[in-house]
Amino acid sequence: MALATASTAGFCGSSQAVLQGSLQLSGSSSGRLSMAKANRMPLSARQGLTVRAQQQSLADTEMTSRRAMLGLVAAGIASGSLVQTVLAESKAPLVGTPVALSGVQRPVKIAGIPGSISESAMSKQLIRAAIKIAATIPGLEVEYIDIDSLPVFNIDLVKDGRYPPVVETFMKHVRAADGILFASPEYNYSVSAPLKNAIDWASMETSVLGDKTAAIVSTGWDLGGSRSQYHLRQIGIRPDIYFINKPELFINVTPPVLDDKGNITDTNIEKEFRDLLVSLQKFTIRLRPCA
After folding, report:
1. Is residue 169 part of a domain?
2. Cα dihedral angle (183, 185, 190, 192), rounded to 10 degrees?
3. pTM of structure
4. When you count CB atoms within 10 A of the terminal residue's CB, does the N or C end of the chain come out lower?
């Protein structure tokens, strides 16, 4: 039975890597693949049939891509051959990768959402600290997202499909981001009410949180807010938020790790925070073709 590996411009992740390489049909060449003259490709002098799948332009329709790939599968089945994926033979960029026309990758933009509305809250200070750290990481930007003025979630506030202006502004900023950094304080072994409220509003439209990457820095009195962090991961399932798995960052509120200017005084925690942001950046770049 033939094994076929194929991809279209609409697919993402590892399957999309097929577009960067070639497809090789090995074994018997008795099977024939009929293609229009414009799409015919040269045969290899070696035993078997070699078909190189050239990356299609964005103007090609998805139906054309599907038919081409189905043709490869049919040829493989007819000849009893094995379709193998050969990667890294082409240096052309993958469809959907975050490379601008100039060839320069655009920055990863992260929405920093604190979990408290208190002005002196540690979660707010950590988001501001993340902004400073991100400034030292090439290609990464963190924006502070204010949730202080969000009303308590109430569907009655949605009139004719429109949200309160403050909610519209909040959703606009989160939607424009590539990923999210949550600073989650632990309240009674769970996430804070303001943070859950913000997520409830944002989840009203799939375009706001859907397919967003995310990382968490949690704070608490004993276990560094670990219980709130795992509750937050569970909450993110429904709106399709993709959290990084590692590293995990838990910070105890005592002893203090921030000075009066909001700088992290513990060098180990500062390094862990930086590693967290770098991991989020890399994960976001990997998932961008899916967006």
Report:
1. yes
2. -90
3. 0.66
4. N
